[in-house]
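HUMAN: Quick job: go over this next protein and say how the chain folds.
***
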Amino acid sequence: MSAGARRHLTSVERDLDRARIERIVSLAGSFEEVAHREIKKVPALRGRTVLNLFYEASTRTRSSFELAAKRLSADVVNFAASGSSVEKGESLKDTVLTLSAHKPDVVCVRTPWAGAADLVAQWSGASVVNAGDGKHEHPTQALLDVYTLVRKIGALDGASIWIVGDVLHSRVARSNILAFQRMGASVTVAGPPTLIPRGIEHLGCAVRYDLDDLRDADVVYALRMQNERIDQPYLPSLREYAARFQVNGRRLHPRQILMHPGPVNRGIELSGEVVDSPQAVITAQVEGGVVVRMAVLYELLEGARAIRRHRRRQAGAAARMSAPPLVHRASPPASVLVRRAHVLDPRTGTDAPHDVLVRDGVVAEIAPPGSLREQAGLEKVDGEGRHLLPAFVDPHVHLRTPGQEHKEDLDTGTRGGGRRGFCAVIAMPNTDPVVDSAPILRALRDAATREARIPSASRRASRSGWPASG
């Protein structure tokens, strides 16, 4: 995470602990339903801009980032180095500075240079997602692989995962080693000695130079031979590599799960028969790529907003701590008369200053200011500027009725509030149409009377001649 409220996803090692991985996987599962709708879109990131900055060829990653952003209703700008000012000699920094002038909210960047995503995060005011930086890392691939496995086998604790092939040139391998281990799996990398990086065991994985014990694995993850990154002869021939390290029907056990980041070189790292076998979840990985990247984009932007809200709440809590309490004692009195407190009661529709009489710990009477007589033995409290609400009331609920019931409605929202101990809720006006007129407000209140499981009030948008709350 960067300074301020900006959040980035440039490295599994630095940016993803188990809790955040699980949160993103859970979010991705909630977005899965969107893919099966007739209209595959939700307004979660409406008005936000996502910039895809790609300096390398890509089919799966680029298209899934674009689809993810569009399904969240974000505006998308695609940039490819080919055909741009990069061909005229423009540097990565100058390109980022130029595009940042358009104020994107997220930059998804893929480059052939390790560490470039971190540099983009320094140069841009946007949140940055690393879509692959050279041989370094590919965090969203690791997330979609975890998501695919969790949906297939459940929790990864204790699972044995073998990563086989060209580990030396693979950014996927490094990110997956870290992510799988953080989810509780044990990881083994296997391949020719020339394609296994020195010291990789320091990441916590085991190293093998043969596939003799491959059948001990629960998951076999085959890596693509990165021919475009190989600038010297690491192997005598691809034919010899296939003979010793190809995952085929003879080596793959029927109980094992087969994964591959794509694109597959059939006949080299995988035989055609296993690619098309029921054990392969390669297509599921591609499908998971869209919902996982939807979750990443949403988590980055909404997470930043949550940080700002948290800081505002902290500031408010500090201010409240410095304010004098209503009653200076360890426990409230049994009987008290509170003068001129602002009473909010969705059940009766009360929303105004009142006097409140509490007798023996129970609210005995609520009346207009000055209409309750003082009685002997009552603790008297000045409630002006304070709010009194019945029991637990959630004053900031998004029930989405009318117009966005596909996200939440009066029944599900109030049912959830009731299960969490709230006796009433106050709904915000982020609806379609917005609650900014008397007819809409009346219709919403009528609907709440029929459908809400607990008492519900509404907060309407400010309009000429109207107060802000209603």
Q: What stands out?
A: The longest strand covers residues 336-345.
